[in-house]
Specification:
The mean pLDDT is 88. It contains one helix and 28 strands. It has one helix at 2-21, and strands at residues 37-42, 44-49, 52-57, 63-66, 72-75, 78-81, 83-87, 102-106, 111-115, 123-125, 138-143, 150-156, 167-171, 189-195, 200-204, 209-212, 220-221, 234-242, 249-257, 270-277, 288-289, 308-312, 315-319, 336-338, 346-347, 363-368, 374-379, 384-389. It is mainly β and 398 residues long.
């Protein structure tokens, strides 16, 4: 009976196709013997978070089609061998996966049938207007337009089970104490700040910004055209990263504070940048102070003790202790993010210190590892925290 039903569906569909494809000139139609799915697209999807419903375009999520009948895939703890259709990027948390409308494209007007849920080998015509349950992989068959051949596929629609923008901290078991810096500083240098691809940076004992082009063997004063009175001399932090769409240019960012006894009422940190082109015969680059308008202090980085920063996700994160001078910020209370290379700094609710963080730490250092974990090391208490934005730990389907 099942085979008769499928045959009947195919026969009726082929008759309809033939009438649609019939040429007005020749009264003939061409049917084909090959069968394949060439595309799968989702329609509008519903998402429910805390009881609130929103909608979004499912077509924004691309689906891959593995046409090999011997491929092996694992979806929702189910291993499947055969042709598979799947989304590389999972749909957002809270997506209603049991009521999904989608469209299947086929080669040469092939006919797609979908197996009934919980009814093995019972197939119904696949309609792009029907809501389908994809809470588990669904079996689909596509028949050639002449009805002589079919191929079978499995469609898997994956949904994230966690909020991608949630940041999760873990207190690590091992204590940490600061390791003394055993590096002998060159004469006249009080602090090594960091490196770009081709340069090393330092602060001299007389508060000059220094650069080395030979990994610290020799040093020279940096090129600063103007605003050198705004150069920070304490609480210094520096990062460098490649500029996008280039293969020989680094963006170097320096943050820090001026001395309190010289600028007692100042409330914001000093932010400087340098764009270093290390290609052959590139011109010498200079440092530039990132000026802040008096009315835009709300978007400036506050003047915090012991500043440190890391490049993370699509921006830069800055951490710091108590506010100094005209800044009354509490120690290690707010993590600031810049998404425009240090021009503006804002609080992003995705990033918060862990609840039991040692806010009385003598100093905090921040690093990022190859797995996108941020590590915060607290001097004094020895606390070590490790955290990551959920979406940066997700792996794409292959």
């Amino acid at each position: 009976m099942k085979l008769i039903k499928i045959s009947l569906i195919l026969a009726m569909t082929i008759v309809l196709m033939a009438s649609c494809l019939k040429s007005d000139d020749s009264n003939s139609v061409t049917l084909y013997g090959d069968a394949a799915i060439t595309g799968f697209t989702l329609g509008t999807l519903n998402k429910y978070i805390d009881g609130k419903k929103t909608t979004y375009k499912g077509s924004s999520y691309d689906f891959s089609i593995d046409q090999s009948s011997t491929s092996k895939h694992t979806f929702k703890d189910t291993t499947i061998i055969g042709r598979c259709i799947f989304n590389n990027d999972s749909l957002p948390l809270g997506t209603d996966i049991k009521h999904v409308v989608g469209t299947i494209s086929t080669r040469n007007n092939g006919v797609a049938l979908i197996e009934r849920l919980n009814a093995p080998d019972v197939f119904d015509y696949f309609s792009s207007s029907d809501s389908i349950d994809y809470s588990k992989p669904r079996k689909v068959r596509v028949y050639s337009s002449d009805g002589t051949n079919y191929n079978q596929y499995y469609i898997s629609v994956d949904v994230h089970q966690e909020d991608g923008n949630q940041f999760v901290w873990t207190l690590m078991d091992d204590d940490w104490t600061a390791t003394p810096d055993e590096t002998v500083l060159p004469e006249g240098i009080k602090k090594i700040l960091g490196n770009s691809t081709s340069e090393r940076y330092a602060m001299s004992t007389d508060n000059k910004l220094m650069v080395s082009h030979d990994k610290g063997a020799t040093w020279q004063e940096e090129l600063i055209i103007e605003d050198d009175d705004k150069l920070p001399t304490r609480d210094l932090a520096l990062i460098s990263y490649p500029m996008t769409n280039t293969d020989s240019v680094d963006y170097v960012l320096l943050i820090g504070n001026r001395e309190v006894n010289e600028q007692n009422n100042e409330a914001i940190a000093m932010v400087w940048r340098k764009v270093v082109d290390y290609s052959k015969n590139a011109p010498e680059a200079s440092w530039t102070y990132m000026e802040r308008a008096a009315t835009s202090d709300s978007l400036a980085l506050p003047r915090l003790k012991n500043l440190t920063m890391v490049k993370y996700d699509d921006g830069i994160l800055a951490f710091g202790g108590d506010g100094i001078g005209g800044c009354d910020e509490r120690a290690y209370y707010t993590i600031y993010q810049s998404r425009d290379h240090g021009i503006t700094w804002k609080y992003n609710p995705s990033y918060d210190y862990p609840e039991d963080f040692d806010r009385f730490a003598d100093n905090v250092t921040a690093t990022v590892d190859a797995d996108n974990y941020i590590w915060l090391h607290c001097e004094g208490s020895g606390q070590v925290w490790r955290g990551r934005l959920n979406k940066l730990g997700w792996k794409k389907q292959k």
